[in-house]
Amino acid sequence: MRIQLNGEDRDVAATTILALVEELGLDVRKVAVERNLEIVPKSLHADTPVTEGDRIEVVQFVGGG
Q1: Residue 38 phi/psi, 5° resolution?
Q2: How far is the C-alpha of 16 from the C-alpha of 22, rounded, in Å?
Q3: CB-based contact 3:12 (threshold 8 Å)
Q4: Sign of CA dihedral 20, 4, 48, 44
Q5: What are the phi and psi torsion angles at 30 (to 5°)?
Q6: Nearest in space to 56 (alpha carbons), one of 27, 24, 30
Q7: Which candidate, 33, 29, 30, 31, places its Cα nearest to that of 16?
Q8: Region 39-58: what's the mean pLDDT?
């Protein structure tokens, strides 16, 4: 399906936010996800669907000093 990911059109196979984060190869513990202008709590990543045309923003936290 086609979604907008961080401002760019992209084809993905994932059907949930959790599956999308995993498909992107990101650490699920270190990301924040917004779906259609609403933050998705980590506790809902597995249950929140990704549907055609969604606008998803994914931010990865990077530690360091």
Answers
A1: -125, 130
A2: 10
A3: yes
A4: positive
A5: -120, 30
A6: 24
A7: 33
A8: 98
